[in-house]
Amino acid sequence: MKNLTLFFIFLISLNISSQEIAVIQYKGGGDWYANPTALPNLVKFTNLNTKTQIDKDIQNITLDDETIFNYPIVFITGHGNILFTNDEISILRSYLISGGFLHVSDNYGLDKYIRRELKKVFPELQLQEIPNNHPIYYQTFSFPKGLPKIHEHDKQPPQGFGLFYKGRLIVFYDYESDLSDGWEDTAVHNNPKEIRTKALQMGANIIEYAFKH
User: Fold this and answer.
1) CATH code (residue 62)
2) Which of 88, 110, 125, 211 could be cross-linked to 63 through a Cys-Cys bond (beta carbons 3.0 to 4.6 Å apart)?
3) Over the stretch 95-149, which tens digit does the pLDDT of each residue have?
4) What is the mean pLDDT of the chain?
């Protein structure tokens, strides 16, 4: 009964009209703080090129209270281990099924850990590769070939995966793409301008799609 009451409190508190983004500060030892210039650059680009008015003040939040419900979109990245507690699993699940959206960007090395933790949050769901004709690839910017390749690691093709709950995309996971590297300041990775532009455009699409759905 207590968990059910908390769920409805969380459902009411989710502010889906807010245009804010937050980074999840997770446990497990992984570098949740990787790519510090990425989201500020993405927000600036998105506001300039789409109809968003996202707050430029990016917050770092934890999953051990209801703070997450203030943000319609939250972001996870890193290279290493990630671990959710039972309470964090419950809160993240409630957030996502209540209308929230999670973007995970594998910064190389996160894959096996995030897959394990997402399975704890939604044991009944499977990560699905998102087809190239999905609307997330056709917002302000079009990507008919799907997720762009931004940073090379293992010479594997980029893949966009998702979790769908009752038909709604609630988690977008960019794998072997490293979108967030492309959002960083130019001097960080020295990516060519066209590569950075593709990364920012795809990031803007993800945000735009999440706000609409």
Assistant:
1) 3.40.50.12140
2) 88
3) 999 999 999 999 888 999 999 999 999 999 999 999 999 999 999 999 999 999 9
4) 89
Q: Round to whole Å and give the CA distance between 120 and 8.
A: 21
User: What domain count does the chain have?
Assistant: 1
Strands of the 101-106 sheet, one edge to the other: 59-61, 21-24, 73-78, 101-106, 168-175, 159-165, 128-129
Do 88 and 117 contact (CB within 8 A), yes or no? no
Tokens of 204: 């803007």
Which residue range is the domain that position 27 belongs to?
Answer: 2-212
Q: How far is CA 76 from CA 61, 133, 137, 144, 210, in A?
A: 11, 25, 20, 25, 15
Q: Indicate the pTM of the whole model.
A: 0.90
**Which pair of tokens denotes residue 57?**
């003040």
How many whole angstroms separate alpha carbon 86 and alpha carbon 152?
Answer: 35
